[in-house]
Amino acid sequence: MTAVNTENESVPTPRERLLDAAASLSYQDGVGVGVEALCKAAGVSKRSMYQMFTSKDDLLAAGLERRAAADERLVPPADSPSSPRERILYVFERLEEHALLEGYRGCPYLAMQVELKDPEHPASRVGHRVKAQLEAFFRDEAGRGGAAEPEFVGRQLVLLFDGASARAGIRADDVQGLAAATAGTLLDAAGVR
Amino acid sequence: MTAVNTENESVPTPRERLLDAAASLSYQDGVGVGVEALCKAAGVSKRSMYQMFTSKDDLLAAGLERRAAADERLVPPADSPSSPRERILYVFERLEEHALLEGYRGCPYLAMQVELKDPEHPASRVGHRVKAQLEAFFRDEAGRGGAAEPEFVGRQLVLLFDGASARAGIRADDVQGLAAATAGTLLDAAGVR
């Protein structure tokens, strides 16, 4: 957090390389990925790493944070003219697309929390906050779309999102024709237009 | 797999103690739990452990298998007189109860697969098989209850189950009043009685 930011488009800094390595290797291999492997992937010495981050936990959290900042693709643009219902379904349509990608391992914010098993871990907190934002998006759109209980619909939809991303991530179900259709069923029942 | 089975109710064998330690410690702390910790918890030497299991992976799989054999609580008894709809909702009501338990970390079969990130791992295969059985239960009951597309309803319900168990396991949502109610909404939409 103290490094001077010298980033530009083409040359990531050592700090950025470490963050990207932490995000991608933990996503691919799990939170048990070693510091050595992270440093090697980033091309940064362990000594330098520990000058930038107090611990691997700290690095994992900062890596997830950086991923979240770049990860705006799931939610439609704020100025899209679509209805609340369409804006909610957009999220599930993107999820179905992502589920087909070869390296897809499910929602990284959910996986991080499932693996760490500690809601107080700094990376769990990042994951929790990102998903709370998604739940708030669902709730607000459901409310705008006429749901009598928008908070309840928000809980339902983020639960559905996590179930679909988890099952696609473990290759139990490709969720094609399933995630968005089920969201649609829940929106119908809640009267969201 | 080769040990003579000398088990009785009160004295678990070293093999059983290892299996129970593998199931409970991996559930509590994750699949990264060390062989030393497993042997210590079981009161078994590493040497003995490697005489019984070829690897930690093998032990994790066998531990999950043993857990699955003991874990019949989620599904109602085969001879229960309830309707298909009630039998399906029973599963989600139990899930809501389990979600309140202090040590609850979500569905162990899902967590194992999320953590291992390898569908071919022997423990992933156990987890996958157990959940495929749950999906088949949902599908068969939905069919008996009059669903036009029982397979689709089975996919929806196991997705809902995994989402609810994951969110409860990470303490993002206690799923009270949520899991069974959402299952009910999906059953209504599918016309399952």
Question: Would you write up a description of this structure?
Answer:
Chain A has about 190 residues and is mostly helical. In chain A, about 65% of the residues lie in helices and about 0% in strands. Chain A contains 9 helices and no strands. Chain A has helices at about 15-30, 35-40, 45-50, 55-70, 85-100, 110-115, 120-145, 150-170, 180-190. In chain A, helix 5 packs across helix 7, helix 7 packs across helix 8 and helix 8 runs antiparallel to helix 9 (about 180-190). Chain A is elongated. The mean pLDDT of chain A is about 95. Chains A and B meet through helix 6, helix 7, helix 8 and helix 9 of A and helix 6, helix 7, helix 8 and helix 9 of B.
Record keyword descriptors for this entry.
homodimer, 193 residues, 0% strand, elongated
Shape designation of chain A? elongated
Biggest interface: A-B, 44 and 44 residues
Mean pLDDT of chain A: 94
**SSE arrangement of chain A, N to C:** HHHHHHHHH
Query: How much strand content do the residues of chain A show?
Result: under 5%
Instruction: Report, as a whole number of angstroms, the end-to-end distance of chain A.
Output: 44 Å
Instruction: Specify the number of helices of chain A.
Output: 9
> The biggest beta sheet of chain A, please?
none
Low-confidence stretches of chain A: none
Oligomeric grouping of the chains: homodimer
Structural class of chain A: mainly alpha
| Tally of DSSP β-strands of chain A | 0
Helix content of chain A: 55-70%
How much is the radius of gyration of chain A in Å?
Answer: 18 Å
